[in-house]
Specification:
11 helices; four-stranded parallel β-sheet; Rossmann fold; 10 strands; alpha/beta
Length: 282
């Protein structure tokens, strides 16, 4: 927040929140925002043409993120939520410095809670290869609590499994066991679900890790932190939007129909449409 030069004149209470992700995973963040601050208008963008971000370079992810921010700003938004761990790890600092609206990512809120709740100081992070190799969770957690050790584990197959709808499937169980065995052997007591897709297989992960391991869901924590930030800036919308005001709008860079089908399975709100746009124009 300190690095941002906020244009307070342009920030309006009834303006929408912009939320973006590399695809559909950020819908878990959107779902939490809808639950925790239900009066807000939201513009969601999923970069379905260029997903996944997890294997791409920092320069590429940053360029994509800057394009999406330019698109979201056409809606006169009051804040941006980077609902993607990879984009938060690679691009958030650059986006913050260039932005005149407040921006929040999903990494810091999850890191903060993990640093607070761990008992034995052994924290596991599962995420994309890009998020793990960035070391961003280690950096944030150790700024808050130096007496911890962070164990990162890339789980690249979870994203395609989730996007194929295999949320409760023997294949997902088997792959999760393979990924998580080494974290169980290390005796972690806290596990950060460091990719926005992962909360959708939370029950599987919880079952494998056991009841003594606390699962940290950054989607939930991000929505909580967003509410605090909007309250602090006097931007929280207290009244529900007027009927017919199109409270939630969805945009994608490809495959709108597939996105709508998946979005309805996650949010269960009755999302009728998503509009495809050419994000390369921004």
């Amino acid at each position: 927040m300190e690095e941002m030069t906020l244009n307070r004149e342009l920030l309006k209470k009834d303006a929408p929140i912009g939320v973006f992700d590399s695809g559909v995973g950020g819908l878990t963040v959107m779902r939490e925002i809808m639950r925790q601050i239900p009066n807000e208008k939201i513009i969601y963008f999923g970069d379905t043409a260029r997903v996944p971000y997890g294997g791409k370079s920092q320069d590429t992810v940053t360029r994509y993120s800057e394009q999406i921010v330019r698109f979201l700003k056409t809606f006169q938004i009051k804040t941006i939520v980077v609902a993607c761990n990879t984009a938060s790890a690679y691009a958030l600092d650059i986006l913050e410095k260039a932005s005149d609206v407040p921006i929040i990512g999903v990494v810091r809120p999850g890191a903060k809670v993990a640093a607070e709740v761990t008992g034995n100081g052994r924290i596991g992070v599962i995420a994309t290869e890009a998020t793990i190799s960035s070391g961003i969770y280690t950096k944030y957690i150790q700024e808050l609590n130096q007496n911890v050790t962070i164990y990162g584990k890339a789980c690249p197959l979870f994203v395609p499994l989730v996007e194929e709808g295999l949320l409760e499937d023997p294949v997902t169980d088997e792959i999760a066991r393979r990924y998580l065995t080494e974290l169980i052997d290390i005796d972690i007591d806290t596990l950060i679900l460091g990719c926005t897709h992962y909360p959708l297989i939370r029950s599987t992960l919880g079952k494998i890790m056991g009841k003594n391991v606390t699962l940290v869901n950054p989607a939930y924590e991000t929505a909580r932190e967003l509410k605090e930030m909007l309250t602090e800036l006097d931007l929280l919308q207290e009244k529900p939007p007027v009927l017919g005001s199109n409270q939630y709008q969805f945009y994608v860079s490809d495959k709108a129909e597939k996105f709508v089908h998946f979005a309805n399975s996650i949010i269960k709100y009755g999302i009728l449409s998503a509009k495809s746009i050419n994000i390369e124009e921004y």
